[in-house]
Please model this.
Amino acid sequence: MNIKKVSSGDKIKKEYKDVLLQTKSDRRILANVPDKTKLRSNKDRRGSQTIDDFSGNINDYIVSKQIGMRYKVQYKVEVTCSKKGKKTDFHCSGIDISMSGILLRISKEHVQLMKEADSILLKFEITPGTMPEGLEMKVKINADMARTEPVSESEYLCGMAFAQPLSVYASKKRGRYMLMISTFLLLFITTFIVLMRAESVIYFKFNKWLYLYSIIAACFLLSRYLFGFLYREVPIDVDFTPGVSILIPCFNEEEWIQRTIISCINQDYPIDKLEVIVIDDCSNDKSVEKIEEIIQKLYDSGDQYDVKKRLKYIVQKENKGKREALAEGALEARHELVVFVDSDSFLDPFAIRNLVQPFKDPKMGGVSGRTDVANTYTNALTKMQSVRYYIAFRIMKAAEAYFDAVTCLSGPLACYKKEIILKNREAWLNQSFLGQKATFGDDRAMTNFVLKNYRTSYQDSAVCSTIVPKKYSVFLKQQMRWKRSWLRESLIAGKFMWKKEPFASLSFYMGLVVPIAAPIVVLYNLVYVPILYGIFPKAFLVGLLLMSLLMSTAQMFLRRSTTWVFGMLFCFYYEAVLLWQMPIAWVTFWKSTWGTRMTPSDIKEQKKKEKKLLEKREKELKKAKKYKREDSHEIFTDE
Model:
């Protein structure tokens, strides 16, 4: 974690620098794109076949590519060389690492020692944020010398191949124990919640509305986890590659837009069936310069990738909003499927190939991919969001996908049939609620148009990572915007969700009631009952603890990540802070301002505030002048 202290008057503010995985660049900028000339393949250095030629399990091919991914690190490594029972230790630096090996910087005198050794043992620690989540641990592993290369007279680079992939090592070292512990906890927590709700039935006659709510909340929560665990993604069919147009709306995203564009064009997908369109919504920073710079660099990457035919950008003359940008891109799209990608989100090289698979079902209208947090290890807030994101997608969306009724195809990565977008384009652009133009919640709004007449799903293997807020002020504004759009679009969806599969419908309406009523229930249990009856809310607090444990334990079970404890912290933070945004959303969900960026609605709102402030100051000035005249008159009269 990088923290920079900035002095502002008497206050010292902490500024966190985003901690992201630092991947080692390939010599080719488009290493995953198939080469139409066949002069160079997208084989990695271990000789893996291309996906089109691969005859085995396609997931094995993807795993082999992931094993070869290298990350730039700065590890202190202890090396133990054994020769005929004699051990010699020395220390060096690890400068890049993959699942299968590590590159060491060592002194010249140690090279011969390693070459002559019968066995080599490496000890180092994978620190959080340097490799994919779930691999943070202390490592003690045997390795073989694969290659050496002199970098100076006194130093060498030494490539070491691990005796087994780190993923296998991690599973043997701690994976099985985390699996056992999390499985036991999940069974214990679930059983305890069921028993507590059974007790609610006994006391139902004393307060039927309160106990009815507790039963509904428990049923909703447990059913989501149940169907989330039962969910299975659609497997890859190599021969199913429909045409895809990726749209990237951009507004003031100079920091991340280049990385986003590269991740979208650098896909393992047939080049004649994939295009990328960037739509800049009249940014007032250096976004357009960054877009032009990276596009030119990609144009120069080689004609064999057809980048000039497949990548273009549009700059809107005025700031019209994200929906306008996406709608403009949809008109330009050449292919049958359209993918929306946020300008601060980065796609896995196989994201598109996985994302399109559910569309083999002709009734499928839209599919959401999984969104991970790219800057998880920046601070406590981003760690909490990382757990929240994972559970929201892997459990909540997966449970909805079990019934082909995902209620939000999330903005970072979502795919739609183009015909549905074009059919509902005008209604989407001109959507208003209580007389106010809808400017945010574009993903939920479009999902409603799709869900009304088609199926929607979730593909867990289609992964992207996104930058989340690292400051609480920005995070709270984002959450308020999301609650407003959730409330607005949920009320709209409520008009037709009853037509869906019965269990999906029931789950939707339970999920609508529970969050809306939650603030009232919390106040009743934590304030009203203790004050009026003098009863400590033990059962209610135990229930909250169990729900937070359920979230954290599910993270541990599915991901084996050390961030699991932050799931509990998020639940407590939600109850203490985020929950109370809901009553505000009740009375302000018609608002159209974003709060986190200056959209036209935000600019309009700001001008209103400035006008009111100016009018207030003018009134105060007039009042002050009036008092001054009266005081002068009184002095004159007294004289």
Remarks:
- The radius of gyration is 28 Å.
- The longest helix spans residues 600-638.
- Confidence is low (pLDDT under 50) at residues 44-48.
- The first strand starts at residue 2 and ends at 8.
